[in-house]
UniProtKB/TrEMBL annotation:
GO terms for cellular component: membrane. CDD domains: MPP_PhoD. Pfam families: PhoD_2. InterPro entries: PhoD-like_MPP, PhoD-like_sf, PhoD_2-like. This is PhoD-like phosphatase domain-containing protein. Signal peptide: none annotated. PANTHER family: MEMBRANE PROTEIN, PUTATIVE-RELATED, PHOD-LIKE PHOSPHATASE DOMAIN-CONTAINING PROTEIN. Residues 2-231 form the PhoD-like phosphatase domain.
Length: 371
């Protein structure tokens, strides 16, 4: 990426979340004291002063280390950025845990401290200065609506700050975002990019969601289940990742309403809408379409660009095969009947080897666009 930037400089680098991984916070000595308590004890415990200091030190040192070395520090020094956070900028699964875990005092401290350092290092801002620095909020979270040029706008939706197991964003946040889009996106804008951390179009994982939910109590009672159950609350390790997805049972109605409102906006303003997301450690392209011909005349035509991760390792080929097996055409009864699928685009691997799985590519990757 830096080589391409040297040849033809990028004017913006968009960070879709997980710019750094902070899961190792739980390996700190003070956090192990908290984890040594029972689940009920952790949820009722008051975060001790030494724990708070350890949390502060961890995030400060983590940012100083990660943002000051390697190619990423060079990119930060050379390319303007627009960032949004996701769970790993705080801790794995943050926002998708049960309310009793999420609202415990120690988790609340972890969230507040991580937010402060996220704003400082990723936005050069502070909680008190956020309103003056181009963000908008319905009370919780930092969302962004900005321009990427004369014909392209960018909505960065904070899908982490308000998140619970039952909600991604509040109705107030959606209302405010659409009000700003209608009133502030200039006439003549042809393209709206919607940056959300987790893809809104992706193969369904309902089978795994049901399985993980049904075996949680069993796994939690098995001695030595380390690595199988989450150390914070005893649920299956993958359940928070499944709850993160827009297609999770608890988020599906919210997702469909959001998509329908975007369809109406695209039709009203004659603007193409494209989602850009990461999180899933592979490359791909989702698609919504009402099959109007030609496609340029279809306001329901929205692509989901999936690009992650530029550093982290991809999932095993077996997982990608399973996701391909799960993929099928889904129907959204939105503004008009809309068909959702994954777009086949990968005929060969990065080394030229022919691929059977042509919709998701499990390789390190990044996406770049131009106009």
């Amino acid at each position: 990426m830096l080589a391409k930037h040297t040849e033809n400089p990028y004017h913006v680098m968009i960070g879709g979340g997980d710019q750094l991984y902070c899961d190792s916070l739980l390996d700190e000595k003070e956090m192990k004291e908290w984890l040594a308590l029972t689940i009920e004890g952790r949820e009722k415990a008051v975060c001790q002063p030494q724990w708070i200091q350890a949390i502060e030190n961890y995030y400060f040192n983590r940012y100083c280390s990660w943002f000051s070395q390697g190619a990423y520090s060079q990119a930060l020094a050379a390319i303007p950025t627009v960032n949004m956070w996701d769970d790993h900028d705080t801790i794995d699964g943050y926002g998708s845990y049960p309310e009793s875990t999420q609202k415990s005092h120690t988790m609340s401290v972890i969230g507040a401290v991580s937010r402060r350092f996220y704003l400082l290092f990723q936005h050069h801002s502070t909680p008190t200065l956020v309103p003056q620095h181009g963000f908008f909020s319905a009370g919780v979270g930092e969302n962004i609506l900005t321009s990427l040029g004369p014909s392209t706008s960018l909505l960065v939706l904070d899908a982490r700050s308000e998140r619970t197991k039952l909600m991604v964003c509040s109705e107030q946040t959606y209302d405010l975002a659409f009000a700003k889009m209608y009133h502030e996106i200039p006439n003549g804008t042809r393209h709206l990019l919607v940056q959300i951390g987790v893809p809104i179009a992706y193969p369904r994982l309902v089978f795994a969601e049901s399985l993980m939910g049904s075996v949680g109590n069993v796994l939690g009672s098995i001695a030595g289940a380390k690595g199988v159950v989450n150390k914070l609350n005893g649920e299956p390790e993958l359940l928070d990742d499944l709850n993160d997805h827009w297609t999770a049972k608890t988020h599906k109605a919210e997702r469909n309403k959001f998509l329908t409102r975007l369809q109406n906006f695209a039709n009203d303003r004659k603007i193409r809408v494209t989602f850009i997301s990461g999180d899933v450690h592979c490359a791909g392209m989702g698609r919504f379409t009402s099959k109007i011909s030609p496609p340029e005349k279809d306001p329901q035509l929205m692509y989901q660009v999936i690009s992650s991760a530029i550093v982290n390792i991809p999932p095993p080929d077996g997982v990608i095969s399973l996701l391909h097996f799960q993929d099928k055409v889904h129907i959204l009864e939105g503004r008009v009947k809309t068909y959702e699928d994954m777009y086949p685009m990968f005929t060969t691997d990065v080394d030229g080897t022919p691929l059977q799985n042509d919709k998701l590519l499990p390789r390190r990757n990044y996406s770049h666009g131009y106009q």
